[in-house]
Amino acid sequence: MDASDMGSDLAAVLLTEEQIHTRLDEMAAAIDRDYAGEPILLVGVLKGAVMVMADLSRRLHAPVEMDWMAVSSYGSGTKSSGVVRILKDLDMDTHGRNVLIVEDIIDSGLTLSWLLGNLRSRGAKTVEVATLLRKPGAAKVEVPVRYVGFDIPNDFVVGYGLDYDEGYRTLPFVATLAPSVYGDDG
Ligand code: XMP
Ligand code: MG
User: Fold this and answer.
1) Atom of ligand 1 nearest to the CA of 49
2) Which ligand has an atom closest to residue 135 CA?
3) What are the b/e assignments for 10-30, b being 16+ CB within 10 Å?
């Protein structure tokens, strides 16, 4: 899927495929440097982090394993409340492991803040976070994020794993949506 399949759905491309891949190269190099050959357990948060996980993990030279969590955040509308329910838990034991949470986007930070606490309580050796995108709202709660791809404006974005109503996840770039897609005049 690319921009030509989207008709007029997209307002603007925020990050091109090339920009994303270049930044992932840099993030992977930083991670490899920091972990210095120690094994890492990558924990992806479904479903949005699927693309970041695939592309980041394949750039790492450190020995990695992958696991996944699915969580849902109770809240009104599009605002997350910080009250989180686990829909799918990890399959693996995190005891004594270097856990690196892989996220697509951090908005308020509430989901991640809960997830960090949850994983820290399970006896991991280290728990760190890598996210492709971070919105300014993330500054509202104190979440230590070690690896950030891009700080982006506070607009709703789709593509590269991120969806609007389950659509647009397979776009290779990150884009903002045209207002017509939200249903008010289209
Ligand atoms: P919090 O606010 O807890 O929530 O950091 C993060 C989650 O909110 C979703 N989210 C988005 N999803 N485009 C999306 O497709 C966006 O612009 C966006 N902003 C937040 C996402 O599920 C993320 O994990
Ligand atoms: Mg979503």
Assistant:
1) 24
2) 1
3) beeebbeeeebeebbeebbee
